[in-house]
Amino acid sequence: MNNSPLISVIIPAYNTIDVIEETLNSVEAQTYQNYQIVLIDDGSTDGTGKFIDNYCKYNKKAIAFHQDNSGVSMTRNKGINYATGEFICFLDSDDTYATTFLEKMLNRQQQTNSNVVYCSFNRIKKNNIVEEILPFEEGNILKSFIEKSFHFSGMLFKRSFLLQNSIYFDDDLKICEDIFFTIKAISQTEAYTVKEQLFNYFYRNQSVTNSIYNAELYENDIKTWSRIQSYLRENYNKEDKKDIIQLVY
Question: Is the pTM of this model over 0.90?
Answer without folding.
Answer: yes
